[in-house]
Write a structure and sequence with these properties.
This protein has helices at 11-18, 33-44, 56-68, 86-96, 120-149, 174-194, 215-227, 241-248; strands spanning 24-28, 48-53, 73-77, 102-105, 152-157, 199-206, 259-262. The relative contact order is 0.14. The protein has 8 helices and 7 strands, in the order H-E-H-E-H-E-H-E-H-E-H-E-H-H-E. Helices cover 43% and strands 14% of the residues. The model has no long low-confidence stretch (mean pLDDT 94). The termini are far apart. It is globular and about 45 Å long. The protein has a 7-stranded parallel beta sheet, sandwiched between helices. It has a single domain (22-257), classed as 3-Layer(aba) Sandwich (Rossmann fold), CATH 3.40.50.720. It is an alpha/beta fold.
Length: 269
């Protein structure tokens, strides 16, 4: 008897896999740039989005923008590098909005300086936001929401800088590269620990996108970056949205511990 072709999946079922209706997504650094773009994607597919960032006026603008798109949004001001602020913020979110189904660890900091001249204060700032604050926030969300409910999606925003060294023609960013490399393995280790608990953990490793953080780098190094990017362009405002939706939804239920570059091919060569 000849093998049968696998049954096709009805389109309605595929749509359901990506549907985030009723889910709550917490996005750090969500008031602008990549964080806001990812909030747009998750909100468009039905999620209620909760944004945190340091500046209240930027959060207010982001909330108005999302509400104009028909997306339900809540905002909470706070600095991820201020560790004493993390637990109370999570408590407020859970009390006022509800559980957290999706956590997007997007907030980040960087510093450019030759390693021999890198200030310790700047090193600690980068580590505190990119790694220590991310750990503490993730821990609170796991304890208070995801583990008790037996499900969740964690998406860490790492970087291609965590997958490779730094081009010597660019400004040295040892702290940033080190912190993002740590976040890559944070993703793997936490994914393995949470795999039998209904919680997936993956990371997105963006290449060069025009944001406030990359403004200085692009001001002098854009041409060199483009020359070494096989697609010969920077990331656009839409290039993280599809992957973010995938990793936040039931469509990625069998994916965990993955660090996925969205970089126009930089890490392919």
């Amino acid at each position: 008897m000849p093998p049968q072709e696998p049954a096709s999946v009805p389109s309605s079922t595929l749509k359901n896999l990506f549907d985030l209706t009723g889910r709550i997504a917490l996005i750090t650094g969500g008031s602008r740039g990549l964080g806001l773009q990812m909030a747009e994607a998750l909100g468009e597919y039905g999620a209620t989005v909760v944004l945190t960032a340091r500046k209240q006026h930027e959060l207010d603008e982001a909330r108005a923008h999302l509400q104009g798109m028909g997306i339900q949004a809540h905002v909470y001001a706070g600095d991820l590098g201020d560790f004493q602020n993390i637990e109370p913020t999570v408590e407020r979110i859970l009390a006022e909005v509800g559980h957290v189904d999706i956590l997007v660890n997007n907030a980040g900091a960087t510093w450019g300086a030759p390693t021999a001249e890198h200030p310790m204060e700047a090193w600690m700032k980068v580590m505190n936001v990119n790694l220590n604050g991310t750990f503490l926030l993730t821990q609170q969300v796991l304890r208070r929401s995801m583990l008790p409910r037996g499900k969740g999606r964690i998406i860490n925003i790492a970087s291609v800088a965590g997958l490779q060294g730094n081009d010597p023609r660019m400004t040295a960013t040892l702290a940033y590269n080190t912190s993002k490399g740590g976040l890559v393995n944070f993703t793997r280790a936490l994914a393995a620990e949470m795999a039998d608990k209904g919680i997936t953990v993956n990371s997105i490793c963006p290449g060069y996108f025009p944001t406030k953080m990359t403004k200085g780098t692009l001001a002098y190094g854009e041409q060199s970056i483009l020359e070494h990017t096989p697609m010969r362009r920077l990331g656009s405002e839409h290039d993280l949205k599809g992957l973010t939706l995938l990793l936040a939804s039931d469509a990625s239920a069998y994916m965990t511990g993955q660090n996925i570059a969205v970089d126009g091919g930089i890490t392919a060569v």
